[in-house]
Amino acid sequence: MTAAGPRHGGAGAGGTTAGGPGALAIVLHTHLPYVEGFDTWPFGEEWLWEAAATCYLPLLELLDRRADAAALTLSVTPVLADQLLAPGVGDRFRSFLDETREDVYAREIGGFLDGGHADEAAALQALREVYRDARHADGGPEPADGIAAGLLRHAAWTSSATHAVLPLLATPQGLDAQLGVGIDSHRRRTGRWAGGLWLPECAYDPALDGALAAHGVRTACVDLTDRLGAGDPAHLRPYATTGGTTLLPLDRTLMDLVWSDGAMPAHAAYRDTHRRTTFHLMPWSNDGRAWDPGRARRRARADAATFVAAATARVAGGGLATVALDTEFLGHWWLEGIWWLEAVLDEAAVQGLAVVHADDAAARARAAGVVPLPAAARATSTWGTPRDLWTWSGPQVADLAWRARRAELDVVAAGPGATDRAWRELLALQSSDWAFLRTRGTAGDYPDRRAAGHAQRLREELAAPGSLEPALRGLAPDAGEQHGATRPQASAAER
In the predicted model, is pLDDT for residue 18 greater than 80? Predict the structure, then answer.
């Protein structure tokens, strides 16, 4: 934050130096691809409604209710805020809650009751309350722009405009556009920024150092697990790039307790996200029993105690353990994840573990002096599988990667002839989500259709400038005439 901005909370916020008890930083990365207005079910804007109901609103309730939750570091991507602030989104979200969710839950509950499966019916009745709570958040209908305002009120970190994998961009102009549009959007919407930037997919390369520094990026997360060695204490200290940005290595020792195959969410008591009903509802636990919210809450508290104990042991000799999670993982994919997160805050107070905001931890590290990034880590890294660029540039998505690079070169070559709409189509095409979804094979041909559509409209606009409307729904409203070419400089207070 700037000197005049909100202060971050957290017990024992100073305990991050070696030789004494260390601290834990929890970074929540909040992002969805631009799906608003592009199809509905099974792939499309229904993802946005589901995330809003099951993740964003429950998280906001926690952040607003607990002062110590200010120690959590929240990032919100500009492209997610673009969607939540788009015209008409609030009405469609309410229709989803009032019509679609009420209808399918009523049908499934009735079917289980008719079939004599009272436990499954009770599970669905409890799960339906999540959507009813979303409909009546804060005592009345919660429009989507209210969700955006709530998230942005707590979000200290931003990201690139459309979550592009920055090391894969082809030109300095393209990199400036992604960074400049994203940072400008966050500044305009929040009125503050202390330089925290989520590198999309944690994709880092030393070639980015100059651009990050020029755009005022002070702090970012990186995954150096394969560079420094899994479990090495070297992950417990910040590092400085050649441009002065502070990099916080993710600590996979702790993250894998929560986010890996067979990790905590796979426990028997938690909701099974694979076994589904006719209308794709999920009333069962991982052990096949009907989901029981009381049983799941107890498990979440137990797992939180285990996690905090492991974190306390991990930093017993000092240092900063940084754990980053996709926000949507908590509440949407792992329904009980928000319960677990709150229990982590409770357990941290009980066990004496300092939970610190990443901006505060990085600022203290800079004041003490940050060592340069080790030579072994001066290479491309991501949090993908494997921890390189393969997910977004491997043979299975090479055509997407080359298409985006060719489009970027065409837009830059067009110079002043590249309109705002052309730049917006390029930003949309550069999203990491299309390659990720194809690599994972979880969204059918949706990512292929989206990428092809943006590429086609970009070609049309370059061939006949002004033939399309300047706006691309709500995407990147800050992509103006400069298209990110003017690099925003951090203020003295921010530096």
Answer: no
